[in-house]
Every structure is written in structure tokens, then in C-alpha cells.
Specification:
The protein is an alpha+beta fold. The protein has a single domain, classed as Cytochrome p450. It contains 19 helices and eleven strands. The strands form four sheets. It has a four-stranded mixed β-sheet with strand order 1-2-7-4. A hairpin with a 5-residue loop joins strand 9 and strand 10. Helix 7 packs parallel to helix 18, helix 7 crosses helix 19 and helix 9 runs antiparallel to helix 11.
């Protein structure tokens, strides 16, 4: 029912867009003057056939589709241009062209196209992820990489993630005892939410867990509609909006929650174990800081942290576990590696990961085939050339990471197959060698690459490692259905359920984890 509802919603949105385009065509033609062009391109990238005035707007329902763009690129080349009215769009679908974007022209493509809802800390003008490349973005990037998500802070918070991983496994043990199926993505969503909340606020998720997960889920639903909201922006002056009121409601609820914890941190300063909220508040109150951040910018950053760090990890875990269940030989090989390094008397830990190369290869292969963010959107700051073609100023750039990471010219004829060994075959690693361009873009690249990639790998490696180490997985169907839903984010068309079956030799380990988890809960209360 959920899938049918999603498909119906997508069809409804597509019909709405097409009807809206026809109805406003005359409006745009009559009331919007053509801006003066400061740059006349000599040679634009190849382009599909377009319609008069509206350009490629008849393709709008498919522009947010990685597979549709992949098909267009297969016909017109690894770089192609489309346009909607006066908005030019360039689509990149190969590693060699991505190298020009992320290396040669990285500064020029270091701003994103904003999808801003004014006065909102959700998808609003205060966010770090969508902020223009400038003083605010540079200040936040430096603080995030050096302090919040730097190696030192990750080491200090390692015990928190270890405790949450134990609780995660104990919960799966309870499900196994009752022979109860689970949704991998839902369980992983709880794990990542608890981890990020404790790293951010410093205490247990407690009664706020369901509330925050609900807000994150609603925000993700709204993110799928932002392209239409952005297209409707010129009509806001007439009171026409697609999802602005809903986003403002989510923003208000997030604001109330975060303000409560910000005040608590301000009233109890100088804590020994600083969490992310302590760090960002220090910058907020520092009169000598390089950049004076606002309270709304703090809240918007924290919202982005919750949204960006939870669902993406949950989806990636679901995809990778689906591949492992469908490939029992790879599952067996991974378990043998974990047993040889970790043993059967303790749970896999973050400190084990450097000695578990096959586990890391499995996770990277899952991200290669099923990147949570399959399309990366940037904006061209000034006229430039990419792969010999002219790109005008303010062009929207769409990098199709999905297509790049399945390109046979980079990954071989088995590029659509789940084969983790490919990440062990190159002594220098696969990611970003100059000779091969940028063919692995699971977390983007350049200045605007995901700053939380190291934390994401810790989440994925330990969670998948623990699920393989401690449990077998029973399915009603013969295989996991790996069909995708078209969209900006990569989700399963049929999220699967599977029943954990605890390994008999691991029962003592999980029983002791259950006791320590119960003691932790009592101490916390």
C-alpha cells in the first residue's frame, strides 16, 4: 500500500506540474522580460530536442530521475544541456567530466542552487549545506571538519556509538527470540538517530526519539517536493505555494525542540565531555570568532545534521543488507573475516575496522550501486568551459553519481553486479585517482563533498558488521526485490522485511550485552 501510494503521489505531482506549466506559460511570456546575457556561449553541450519557449520543461517529471538522465546521456553523451524557460541545466554522467567539475572548476561550482523557504530553519536560508560559497560556509566547514566531525571528537564519542550498537543488537536479539520480522531501514533509522542525538545533545534520546524521527521523516517527504516548490517561486507573490506551509510547520516544531536544549546547554556551561551543541554554542558566544553565526543558523545546521545523517545511513544499510542476503557466498566470506579478526566473544568495534578490509569493501560496493544521494546539484558561479563545452553563469549543474558509479567504461562490464572484491584489487584504492577521474562519488567530491562521510562509514561498517557477525537472516521470499524508486534520493520500491536468527555460538555474547545495556538504562535513569 505504501508503494502504491508513493507511485500515485508521484503521478499526481507529475500531472500537477504539466498542468501548471501549460497554465503559466502565457504568464511567463507576457510578464517576464528576457534578462540581458553577459555571456554568449560559443559551444553548448549536446542537447535533446526541445519545445519553443518552455525548452525541456516537458521533461520536468523526469529531471529528478537518475535513470531517465542516464538514458538521455547514453544518447547525447556524458555531458548534455537542457533548459527550462531561461534556466540552463547541464547534466554530467561520466568520471572524466566530473573531474573537470570537481577538480579543475571546483571553486566555480562550489555553490548550490538554493531551495529556500524564507523564515524556516528547514530548507531555509540559514542552512550550511545549501549556503552559498562564502564566509559563513567556510567558517562552518572549518568548525565541522576540525571539531564536530574531526578525528578527535569521533574518538571521544566512540563509547556512545558502542553503547548504541549494543542496544541495537540486543533489540535484534529480542526480535529473534520472538521470531519477529524487522524492517532493516527502520531499525537502522533508530540506531543512527540515537547516535546523532547523543553526539549532539549529550544525553539519551529518551522521550524525544519518536518526535525527532517523525520530524525527520516529514522533512524527507517535503524534500521530494522542493523542486516543484522552487519552480513555483515566482508565483508566491500571488499566494501560490506547493508545500511551504507544511515546511514552516515542521520548522516551528524543530525550533521549539532545539531551543529547549540550547537553553539547557547555556545554563549548564563548562561540561567535561563537550558535545556538538556545546561546540557550536561556544562559537555563537565568541565575540572574536571569524564569523558571527546566528541562532537560526545553529538550529538549521543541527536540523541538517539530523536529516542528512539518519535516513541516508538507513537507506544505505537496507540496500547493502539486501545485496548480502541475495549473495550468500559474499555474506559467508564477510562473516569469516569478522570471526577471524573479532572472534565470537565480543562485538565488532570501530577499532577493528582497519583490520576488516572486506567489510569496508562490502560497504563501499553497496554505496557504489545504491548511493543514497544519487544526484548532486550545483550552480555555476561564472562562465567557464567543461570538457571543451561552454557553461553559462548561473547554470544548474546536475552530477549523476548513480550513472557515474555504474559506468562500464570505469567499472567494467560487470558494473551492475555486486562485487566487493573490486575495491581490493587496486593497491592505491579506487576513490578519485587522477588517471581514472572521479568514478566513486558516494559522498560527492570537492569542497562541497559530504563533511560527515567518516561518521557515515563508522555507522555503516559497524552496523552491517554486527548484523553479519551475530545473525542469519530469514526471508519469506526467495530474494530481496532490489527495484528502485525514481527520485533525487535512492529508495527501495519494495522495502523488505527479514527475520533475524541468532547464531547459537553468539548467544552468550548477546546475553552479556543485554545485561550491560539494562545496567546502562538504570544508570541513565
Amino acid at each position: 500500500m505504501m508503494v502504491a501510494s508513493s507511485i500515485f503521489e508521484l503521478q499526481y505531482i507529475s500531472m500537477f506540474v504539466l498542468i501548471w506549466l501549460i497554465s503559466v506559460l502565457i504568464f511567463f511570456t507576457l510578464f517576464f522580460k528576457k534578462p540581458k546575457e553577459s555571456f554568449r556561449p560559443v559551444r553548448l553541450p549536446p542537447s535533446p530536442p526541445s519545445l519553443p519557449i518552455i525548452g525541456h520543461l516537458h521533461l520536468l517529471p523526469y529531471i529528478a530521475s537518475h535513470k531517465s538522465l542516464q538514458k538521455l546521456s547514453s544518447r547525447h553523451g556524458p555531458i548534455l544541456s537542457i533548459h527550462a524557460f531561461k534556466m540552463p541545466i547541464v547534466v554530467v554522467s561520466s568520471a572524466s567530466v566530473a573531474y573537470d567539475v570537481y577538480r579543475t572548476q571546483d571553486v566555480n561550482f562550489s555553490s548550490r542552487h538554493p531551495f529556500a523557504i524564507e523564515n524556516s530553519i528547514v530548507f531555509g536560508p540559514y542552512g550550511f549545506i545549501t549556503a552559498p560559497y562564502g564566509d559563513y560556509w567556510r567558517f562552518m566547514k572549518k568548525m565541522v571538519m576540525a571539531e564536530m566531525l574531526g578525528q578527535l571528537h569521533l574518538e571521544r564519542s566512540r563509547h556512545l556509538r558502542g553503547e548504541e550498537l549494543k542496544k541495537f543488537c540486543v533489540n535484534l536479539l529480542d526480535k529473534a527470540k520472538r521470531d519477529e520480522p524487522i524492517r532493516v531501514s527502520e531499525e537502522m533509522m533508530k540506531l543512527t538517530s540515537n547516535n546523532i542525538w547523543r553526539m549532539t545533545v549529550g544525553n539519551r534520546f529518551s522521550e524525544e526519539g519518536g518526535r525527532v524521527r517523525e520530524l525527520v521523516s516529514r522533512s524527507l517527504d517535503m524534500s521530494k517536493k522542493l523542486i516543484i516548490e522552487n519552480a513555483l517561486r515566482p508565483l508566491r507573490r500571488f499566494g501560490i505555494s506547493f508545500c511551504e506551509n507544511q515546511i514552516l510547520d515542521i520548522s516551528r516544531r524543530f525550533d521549539e525542540l532545539l531551543e529547549k536544549y540550547l537553553r539547557d546547554h547555556e545554563e549548564n556551561p563548562n561540561r567535561e565531555d563537550k558535545d556538538m551543541m556545546d561546540i557550536v554554542l561556544e562559537a555563537y558566544h565568541d565575540e572574536n570568532a571569524e564569523y558571527k553565526i546566528s541562532r537560526n543558523q545553529i538550529k538549521a545546521f543541527l536540523v541538517e545534521l539530523f536529516i542528512g545523517g539518519t535516513d541516508t545511513s538507513a537507506q544505505a544499510t537496507q540496500w547493502t543488507m539486501g545485496e548480502l542476503i541475495n549473495h550468500p557466498n559474499i555474506f559467508k566470506k564477510l562473516r569469516e573475516e569478522i570471526d577471524s579478526v573479532v572472534g565470537k566473544t565480543r562485538l565488532v568495534q570501530e577499532t577493528d575496522l582497519p583490520k576488516l578490509p572486506y567489510l569496508q569493501a562490502v560497504v563501499k560496493e553497496g554505496l557504489r550501486l545504491h548511493p543514497p544521494a544519487n544526484l548532486s546539484i550545483r550552480r555555476c558561479g561564472k562562465p567557464c568551459k567543461v570538457s571543451g563545452y561552454d557553461v553559462p553563469e548561473n547554470t544548474m549543474l546536475v552530477v549523476n553519481s548513480y550513472a557515474i558509479m555504474r559506468d562500464p567504461s570505469s567499472w567494467g562490464q560487470d558494473s551492475d553486479q555486486f562485487r566487493p572484491e573490486r575495491f581490493l584489487e587496486s593497491p592505491k584504492g579506487i576513490e578519485g585517482s587522477r588517471e581514472e577521474g572521479l568514478k566513486y562519488l558516494a559522498f560527492g567530491s570537492g569542497r562541497r563533498a559530504c563533511p560527515g562521510s567518516n561518521l557515515a562509514y563508522l555507522f555503516l561498517d559497524t552496523a552491517i558488521g554486527a548484523m553479519v557477525q551475530c545473525f542469519d537472516w530469514k526471508m519469506d521470499a526467495e530474494k530481496v526485490d532490489m527495484e528502485e524508486v525514481e527520485g533525487i534520493t535512492l529508495t527501495m520500491a519494495h522495502p523488505f522485511s527479514t527475520t533475524p536468527v541468532v547464531r547459537p555460538e553468539l548467544i552468550p555474547l548477546l546475553a552479556s550485552s543485554s545485561s550491560s545495556t539494562e545496567q546502562y538504562r538504570m544508570n541513565d535513569q
